[in-house]
UniProtKB/TrEMBL annotation:
UniProt name for this protein: Orotidine 5'-phosphate decarboxylase
PROSITE patterns tied to this protein: OMPDECASE
GO MF term (any one): orotidine-5'-phosphate decarboxylase activity
Catalytic activity, reaction form: orotidine 5'-phosphate + H(+) = UMP + CO2
Gene: pyrF
HAMAP family given in the database record: OMPdecase_type2 (MF_01215)
Gene source species: Solibaculum mannosilyticum
Active site: 106
Amino acid sequence: MSLDRLIEGIARTNNPTVAGLDPKLEYIPDCILKPYIDQYGRTLEAAAEAIFTYNQGLIDALCDIVPAVKPQCAYYEMYGWQGVRALERTIRYAQEKGMFVITDGKRNDIGSTMDAYAAAHLGVTDVAGNGIEAFGGDALTVNGYLGSDGIDPVIKVCRQRDKGMFVLVKTSNPSSEELQDQAINEEPVYLMMGRQCEKWGEQLPGKYGYTGVGAVVGATWPQQLSELRYELPHTFFLVPGYGAQGGSAESVAGAFDKRGLGAIVNSSRAILCAWKKEGCPGEDYAQAARREALRMRDAIAAVIPVITLE
């Protein structure tokens, strides 16, 4: 299944990390933004063009050392249809460079509406008998709290199209404990959702022991990461919250198995804004992002087993 391709990319690059492409205009150097403002004015068109050019530079600098990118839909939707077009172009460009794309949409609905979300982000859209990929991501983040009615349509498309998904289980934000840590029959809700991922994943088996139904588990909860790794042996983790939200290499170590597999750790702002943190010229933003990605890779490699597919 699709997450097998992600795991193979992790092994190929020896790097269990994903770069979150969550651009804001203040992250983009003037050398990129200003020419588009001059051409299109202070418009959504200028913003979207600058975002795509910025993303291209990041992808070019990262594609040989980072196996995947994770664009968050909201950062593109806020720039209207022009931004959504930049999202689609970013997905295509990253895939052309050999990267796995996790579309971070956190979609959640039932029936025909979830069918539409699954078709849009992972499948094909029928246009008078012609099937066309609208966005064509490799995996999609989904909210499973409507139950199987909101998951089954995605599983269907994943099976047909060799795609994967990551279900929200224990999210990185501080207030997640208000609901996700509440106990039902002495078991926290996040663990119940994790067990559902194991069950749903039986429909999408993978060749490396992990299914096509992954789980989102935050780097800010190291104890729960370790607990869930033990309880969910077939569920691959997407781990947000590294860096700017306070997660560290040590806090994510419990997400990995004895083969150095089991998780991919996301960093967004630390990579996107590395040029600002370093104080280097804007023209060097992509290489600064590469340097930060290498630092992150090395920090995590120091606390997990050597990565192997065996």
